[in-house]
Amino acid sequence: xxxxxxxxxxxxxxxxxxxxxxxxxxxxxxxxxxxxxxxxxxxxxxxxxxxxxxxxxxxxxxxxxxxxxxxxxxxxxxxxxxxxxxxxxxxxxxxxxxxxxxxxxxxxxxxxxxxxxxxxxxxxxxxxxxxxxxxxxxxxxxxxxxxxxxxxxxxxxxxxxxxxxxxxxxxxxxxxxxxxxxxxxxxxxxxxxxxxxxxxxxxxxxxxxxxxxxxxxxxxxxxxxxxxxxxxxxxxxxxxxxxxxxxxxxxxxxxxxxxxxxxxxxxxxxxxxxxxxxxxxxxxxxxxxxxxxxxxxxxxxxxxxxxxxxxxxxxxxxxxxxxxxxxxxxxxxxxxxx
Amino acid sequence: xxxxxxxxxxxxxxxxxxxxxxxxxxxxxxxxxxxxxxxxxxxxxxxxxxxxxxxxxxxxxxxxxxxxxxxxxxxxxxxxxxxxxxxxxxxxxxxxxxxxxxxxxxxxxxxxxxxxxxxxxxxxxxxxxxxxxxxxxxxxxxxxxxxxxxxxxxxxxxxxxxxxxxxxxxxxxxxxxxxxxxxxxxxxxxxxxxxxxxxxxxxxxxxxxxxxxxxxxxxxxxxxxxxxxxxxxxxxxxxxxxxxxxxxxxxxxxxxxxxxxxxxxxxxxxxxxxxxxxxxxxxxxxxxxxxxxxxxxxxxxxxxxxxxxxxxxxxxxxxxxxxxxxxxxxxxxxxxxx
Amino acid sequence: xxxxxxxxxxxxxxxxxxxxxxxxxxxxxxxxxxxxxxxxxxxxxxxxxxxxxxxxxxxxxxxxxxxxxxxxxxxxxxxxxxxxxxxxxxxxxxxxxxxxxxxxxxxxxxxxxxxxxxxxxxxxxxxxxxxxxxxxxxxxxxxxxxxxxxxxxxxxxxxxxxxxxxxxxxxxxxxxxxxxxxxxxxxxxxxxxxxxxxxxxxxxxxxxxxxxxxxxxxxxxxxxxxxxxxxxxxxxxxxxxxxxxxxxxxxxxxxxxxxxxxxxxxxxxxxxxxxxxxxxxxxxxxxxxxxxxxxxxxxxxxxxxxxxxxxxxxxxxxxxxxxxxxxxxxxxxxxxxx
Amino acid sequence: xxxxxxxxxxxxxxxxxxxxxxxxxxxxxxxxxxxxxxxxxxxxxxxxxxxxxxxxxxxxxxxxxxxxxxxxxxxxxxxxxxxxxxxxxxxxxxxxxxxxxxxxxxxxxxxxxxxxxxxxxxxxxxxxxxxxxxxxxxxxxxxxxxxxxxxxxxxxxxxxxxxxxxxxxxxxxxxxxxxxxxxxxxxxxxxxxxxxxxxxxxxxxxxxxxxxxxxxxxxxxxxxxxxxxxxxxxxxxxxxxxxxxxxxxxxxxxxxxxxxxxxxxxxxxxxxxxxxxxxxxxxxxxxxxxxxxxxxxxxxxxxxxxxxxxxxxxxxxxxxxxxxxxxxxxxxxxxxxx
Lengths: 338, 338, 338, 338
Hints:
4 copies of one chain form a homotetramer.
Chain A: E1 2-5, H1 11-21, E2 27-32, E3 37-42, H2 50-54, E4 59-63, E5 83-86, E6 89-91, E7 97-101, H3 108-121, E8 125-127, H4 145-158, E9 161-165, H5 172-178, E10 181-184, H6 192-198, E11 205-208, H7 215-226, E12 233-237, H8 255-262, E13 267-269, H9 271-275, H10 281-291, E14 295-299, H11 317-333
Parallel strand pairs in A: 7-8, 7-14, 8-9, 9-10, 10-11, 11-12, 12-13
Antiparallel strand pairs in A: 1-3, 1-4, 2-3, 5-6
Helix pairs in contact in A: 3-4, 3-11, 6-7, 10-11
């Protein structure tokens, strides 16, 4: 159930309504939109007296819908969420969030060189895996804590914010201190223990869609983070697993408008993992921007063919320059900027 | 095997090469590109003497690749195919092919009204099912021959070209005479008997991707048509079947750049069947144009909620006007026009 | 709506009921079960007066369910359908229908040799493709009419009934005359023109499940055949398309109990196409028999590595002997025989 | 590369071989099979001198295959792994491992009653979730530590071994002490941090297949556990995510023979999560036993319609009795027992 109230409704009225509907096993959420206030209720609301509430001063409408999630729900929070990273970076507004960098941090030289190049091209965030979730235990698992130090050095030199994936709950405190945007990988999208703990931080979380997660399961995973108190969730569509083998995954481009309809959270696109093919990053990026994605995360490597992981889907810095140039006119056409 | 020759290579040389490589069970195809001539060979080419051929006047290169299809293959036909419908309509060039109209032709009034509206908005082709492939034998199967007459009337009045699906090989002669673009539906993508017969016509064929066809199977289906002599195939991506149920199908947006890489054939997008949800047609259309699709086929109904089929995914004429307005700046941004 | 009546209900009562419920756009079906009679109604039944009907002599129950299909529906036909092929062959009863033979008929010698071997092992039906639906137009398309003659010769010599796929509506009369069980392949499961015409025959139709057909779509395809008058449909589960690439397709073993619950039609399993791997035919056959499939269709080739198609999934005659020996104790354990 | 040696090959020879092939970045594994000894090598083996090795006393064969995993690999370990739980329970041999119990532990009364019933029917293990991975944070999350105490009480009373899912690495010590078989759920199949830590225990791990994991990814997940030193992995097929919605998931029955071919690890089947439909557990169990699964894990609830989770797929104790009776003759037919 959703109760819509006039923007100027008094706190005393809201408190009175909340008192009336309070009940164990029922979750109440309160939000302010640009043109109204909202009280949302998760759980059975059969015994709530609609007549009494509808007569209260300020109540515009009572909507009887059963919603499974609330903090991530557009109905409970009509305005877009805009996450502020620092004075010059916000996510979810007119500006596109461009994250770029290698799949894995491999060396100081590598990460610094790539960081400089992608900064020049227009990226404001540096990605780079330090703990790598690899299908095989015998594959390169990342430089780990040493890699994190290299990322920090690259940040110091370039001013780029750093984005990297967390693999273990043991690293939460360290990540909270050192990392600007904490990434949850596809394989951990339903690692609820991890999600709950990240929910206790005050840090932006980049939540990648699981390999075969439905839109609803994905929003529910966001809800796990948000229900613990952290509202700063950025969703990332990275392709889903289908029968088609011509691409590594199938970019589910429809997910962007769907998420925009169902949720107020920002959503960005990872064309690198979606395609798994270098030359395809450019066209997919154009489609993502045109359809309204709030940003892109693109794998760039200074020597893709020698990359320790995901070389086939990494673009060169020169290709990255071209991609940025190619998406600009489309961004402009729909009223956004880089 | 592919033999590239200089543009001015003499016919006598080409004939000599062809004679050398001729063999039963081997298929030879000859093509002219903007900057070269090409001789392609399907089938075992182990016993062809590369040394002799490479010495012949005009031969630039011999590429030893095993290709499974040839007439639809970009390697055998480097330039984009541009299909000419009439003096003012081509498919595959700078102009987008905009096809619009109801899922099914329901009445004279309905089809004429919609045809006028979509023409005004900018469509140059009218779609409308007359033989409808319905999952259930008890659902509305279309107005059939009567419906075709109504389509013809709408064409007469508006000048729009008509696009409609063929269901039976018995109707091929009739369709050849009366229909401008013959559509092969998803369910018949591998109805090889139908494909072969359509290959004997000199008509554009709109070949929809099968519900779970791979890119390769789809191109092979095009090859069935082309190998019988009809080169006028327009591919149509309309969503694939995946586990996700939030949309009717999953639009495989990556199919567009993939097809453009692998084939020279034009490819358009059907956002209506891909999404199955009215409000989603607009964002998907924008993505399709941005990524380089050669056109769109959109279901429009003057009274979607009363439509005899697919009402939920049909837009109103007003919504269609908006879609056209919204895709224009994106088309312009990438150098195309409606 | 379903009306259940006592077994001995008089024809005059049934006629009276049918008269009462008759209406254009409403489909009525009448069936006799082992312990009752049934009148089923497809279509809107809101205006039928339940009180009047429930008072009529013999009426046991009126069930208000909206069913999408009727002739294939277990609710309208509670007893298993048993299709009689000849005096010694029935499909759907205690006996398992064992169909075996090569993917494609290749020569007289080949088909006769295989036919003898599979007959000895216990098969009662010979399969062999003569018109082959191949992904590529350049692959072997079958011996066509010549192949059919060879199948007939093999039948003459061994007494096995022949099962072969139809590709074109033009061949319907010929198949009706010459073939014992007409197969509709996966790619044509929703070739509604073909299905409707096969519905006018009085021949068993082996309807393979489409590559990504849902259970409901498959039963609806059967309904297309049955609604034209031919009740002799045998379903065949042959694996569905999923993301898993370790097998050619994924055998949907759950389809067997599901079909048994939803329909009265016999269902057999094709482990060869499901697995696409020779050694896997044996274990999949055991699972299929254990779960209650009414038969198996298995590809056998006397020289699988030289087979013109599907060699990798064809077993040798010796392996087929073993499969038959291995499934016998399981068949016995669940009260069935070969 | 795999080196096969005679059973009686001397340790000194083996040591000599190992010394010859030792190299950083190369992983060597040694195994004893019933009829030979095996040295397996993961990683590049190009520079190993085959001639020298093949001359050494005892070497039967050198097989040049590139394997991605080794400890879980049948090629490196030809005999079936049989995991010994206690004197009367082994997994992977002739006896089927029957695990049964409620989806979630709900109360002392509930778990004790169910435990007694399933023990009577023939189960030797009790399942019961105490930390529940639920899609929504607002759904019942399990009785947690209190639930574990109830499981222990049920074990004390019935003698059944307990199987329950772990959600957090923080609970590893507790689970090591208190739980007999630790379950890793589908959502955590690639939670590599968790897998690595479970690899340091000496406890059987029940590793469920991820929702859309390939067979190879699944074996690699097992390898993560095994590469840390714990060889006691039991795989569990529980259905994969496909387009088909008639069942909750699609039981991939082919996974059982595939795993048996590729690995020596035991594999059991979870028909409850695969089907998601109560009446389907029985037929799926029969297929699983017939195809060679090493056991079953079945959800049983004394009052399924009131179950706090997964009621729709839980069978009653009476239905469980029937399932056990129905699978016995099939087990007997293939030479296995309960």
